[in-house]
Design a protein that fits this description.
Dna Topoisomerase Vi A Subunit, Chain: A, domain 2, elongated, Helicase, Ruva Protein, domain 3, about 45% helix, alpha/beta, five-stranded mixed beta sheet, about 15% strand, 2 domains, two-stranded antiparallel sheet, 7 strands
Length: about 200
């Protein structure tokens, strides 16, 4: 039986480590890289290198950034009285695509999941509490995913913010329980933002 070369085997193994990519898909991707022109393959390699070298978390909100602050935190036109709390940068992107929200964000970089060994101290919750303590926010919107862990994370944060003079709301339940913001369409997200309610 013919064997793949060492380099191709290593490429297949690396692709197979990606989420949602099985062995067969990894092989298809590797063969695709072999077929395309060298400049196209190197452009992919350079893009991966650039992301790993240049992208970091915003010092204020923990969104993805290529400098100290992300584009949203640098935008003076944003409503600084509103703060929307999301689990991941991809959730922020989904909400931004609705064009319904013009406030600021705070990215938790995950959710509390005790069964996976993820506690509050592994998220950016302390930084969130400090932002609310020192900021001039009138409303904090809990936009964690409507899952058991997401709701638990929102409840934990709500308890931490209970003594601050800020209204705490959550997204309306136009988003199906158990779903993930990343995969919700923009119309559902738009309705959920405009119909948010007190937590």
């Amino acid at each position: 039986m013919a064997q793949l070369t060492q380099s191709v085997t290593e490429l297949v193994d690396e692709f197979a480590k990606l989420p949602g990519i099985g062995k067969k898909s990894a092989e298809r991707l590797a063969y695709h890289i072999l077929r395309v022109h060298k400049t196209e393959a190197m452009a992919l390699a350079n893009s991966i290198r650039n992301v790993k070298q240049n992208v970091r978390y915003c010092q204020v909100c923990f969104n993805l950034a290529e400098s100290a602050l992300c584009e949203i935190c640098e935008d003076a036109r944003r409503d600084e009285s509103l703060l929307c709390v999301v689990e991941q940068p991809r959730d922020l992107i989904s909400l931004e695509q609705t064009a319904q929200y013009r406030g600021l964000y705070h990215v938790l970089l995950g959710r509390i999941a005790p069964l996976e060994g993820i506690g509050p101290d592994q998220l950016s919750i302390d930084a969130l509490v400090e932002r609310v303590r020192t900021g001039n926010f009138k409303e904090v919107i809990m936009a964690t995913n409507p899952t058991l862990e997401g709701d638990g994370t929102s409840l934990h944060i709500t308890n931490l913010l209970a003594d601050f003079p800020v209204e705490i709301t959550r997204l309306a339940r136009g988003i199906t329980s158990g779903s993930v913001l990343e995969f919700a369409n923009k119309d559902v997200l738009s309705d959920a933002l405009s119909g948010r309610q007190k937590f």
